[in-house]
Design goal:
With 225 residues, the protein is α+β, with helices and mostly antiparallel strands. Helix content is 17%, strand content 35%. It has an 8-stranded antiparallel beta barrel with strand order 1-2-3-4-5-6-7-8.
Length: 225
């Protein structure tokens, strides 16, 4: 009986998939920005700071701590918006796009990363729209149930005030991570449209990669964008 009660508790408190394939979240959800306005959140941002409980993601970001340029564009008729991320990697300009679905809660978005078979819920925890936005991302890998918490700081410019940095550190500590682990991204030369090697593309919808016997670090950046 005790095992049955424990199993029910896990199903209630965890982020799980039901038999019908409906994604559910913990009963206690993070609170997005009060009176959130999506239209004001759209436009150009820079991802200037990140921290995550995923060691692979943190390893990759430490190796390339570059401020990613983001362009958010709403598709009102479809109930979603597109985030296009542009960055320089290995000397070339790369651009990817991810579609975020809106939810019934303003300031909370959802997208699936089919490459890693993961669900990602994003929350705009705090923003003043004109300067910064603190983002909380909760992801769950479907096969394993592994959960990852990530926090990102978006800024309209690459410069961040001490007050915003303090807000970021407070949020990081609130979610059980060390503020010393936060990676501050640095700005490099931006990609001009003519410098792009390829046209922007939507995040590939492919199956999760098979596990390799070698200790290979997967390219998980797109999982948390």
């Amino acid at each position: 009986m005790q095992k049955a009660v424990s199993l029910v508790s896990v199903l209630v408190l965890g982020s799980v998939w039901t038999l019908q394939g409906v994604h559910t979240l913990p009963e206690t959800l993070p609170l997005p920005q009060e009176d959130f306005h999506l239209d004001q959140f759209m436009g150009r941002w820079f991802e200037v700071a990140v921290v995550s409980t995923c060691p692979h993601y943190m390893q990759r970001k430490r190796g390339n701590p570059v401020a990613v340029a983001l362009q958010l564009q709403r598709v009102a008729s479809q109930g979603n918006f597109t985030m296009t991320a542009t960055s320089v990697r290995n000397g070339s300009c790369q651009q990817t796009s991810t579609v975020y679905d809106l939810t019934d809660t303003p300031g909370r978005f959802f997208h699936r990363n089919l490459r890693f078979d993961a669900d990602v819920d994003s929350f705009v925890v705090e923003t003043n729209y004109d300067e910064f936005a603190l983002m909380l991302l909760l992801s769950t890998e479907k096969p394993s149930g592994n959960k990852t918490t990530s926090i990102k700081l978006y800024s309209r410019t690459v410069d961040v005030t001490p007050a915003v940095r303090l807000n970021l550190k407070t949020l990081v500590r609130r979610h059980g991570m060390s503020d010393e682990a936060v990676i501050m991204n640095h700005k490099k030369d931006e990609c001009a449209p003519r410098e792009l090697d390829t046209e922007p593309h939507i995040q590939p919808q492919i199956s999760a990669p098979k596990k390799s016997k070698r200790n290979v670090v997967p390219p998980v950046d797109s999982l948390y964008i």
